């Protein structure tokens, strides 16, 4: 009997088509379940970084006041005498003023940028004409919320000094509060706007010290956050500033529609009354759809989409904001500038963010809290005033 090796054929196992489809379906379901959790975790991390940025800014302001016995304000070209800032040139509507952000830089580890700025030249001239331009176009991470988009607009930023490379705007997501008002000037009836910050000119009372925060530093908003503009005047976004001064064709909208001067107390709530304010809000909302229809320079006059363009200029929409509405309100921001330039006119620009449910604010004591979008308008007004005589409990926002 001969022995011959026998080879048995073996069937190689594998997935059937149905089994493969089932496995793919299970993986797809797991990804669908996990993706929102991952995105939520990422947003939580971004919000934590945003909170930390505001914390740094709030503490820098607090330390500035401790060192100078006054809070930083918005000044034109300036000098320091005895630790107190004084104006050296006429302050007007806000164009060219230096922001509180620029002044507190040494207190938030931005000394090199601060030291490279020529404060004896107006901030707008630094930006427009390239004087100390390297400092002005520096993106300061502490002024940028990672949940928001970076500005891409090069208008007014020119080129990087010493090159032909276009310079994008540095961006700024955090604004100093003028309170429940659309008028930021120190000459406003009643000694300026009711918030922590104001624009100061020669002869104005520009001093705001800790003694002036009569509602308490833990009850007064110093800084809030906003979404950076979309920089597209033909795209309607909720953070755009709708210029009713141009769209309306006259100046009858000062004072929440009352025809008052820029510095009238009626530009402040609740002095003007809820009915006038609601009329103003509806006016802005009504003009919003047509604000994107123009072309060329007229487009920029009507739909001002450069909110948060920079950190150096002390002006509404750049580094100053208002506490007139809760975060992410359905009403658009609003500007009342009849000649259609920048936002150096009565302007409403409120809290907004990409955080679900609200926005962060830094109080004058340096603490940071989250303000819900469901917060009432009156509570926002109260939190924005430094001496309104109203104390708000934390469960109200």
Describe this structure in words.
The model is unreliable at 79-91 (pLDDT under 50). The chain is globular, with a radius of gyration of 26 Å. The protein has one domain. It is built from ten helices and eleven strands. The chain has a five-stranded mixed beta sheet, with helices on one face. The chain is α+β, with helices and mostly antiparallel strands and 397 residues long. The longest helix has 52 residues, at 17-68.
How do the strands and helices of this protein lay out in sequence?
Layout: H1 17-68, E1 78-81, E2 84-87, H2 100-103, H3 111-115, H4 123-129, H5 133-136, E3 174-177, E4 221-225, E5 241-243, H6 244-247, H7 254-257, H8 274-287, H9 297-302, E6 303-304, E7 320-321, E8 333-335, E9 347-348, E10 358-363, E11 368-372, H10 377-384
Parallel strand pairs: 3-7, 5-8
Antiparallel strand pairs: 1-2, 3-4, 4-10, 5-6, 8-9, 10-11
Describe the structure concisely.
27% of the residues lie in helices and 10% in strands. It is α+β, with helices and mostly antiparallel strands and 397 residues long. It has one domain (44-396).
Number of strands: 11
Specify the structural class.
alpha+beta
Distance between the termini: 97 Å
How are the strands of the largest sheet arranged? 7-3-4-10-11
Beta-strand share of residues: 5-15%
Which structural traits does this protein have?
single chain; 397 residues; alpha+beta; five-stranded mixed sheet; four-stranded mixed sheet; 10 helices; 10% strand; globular
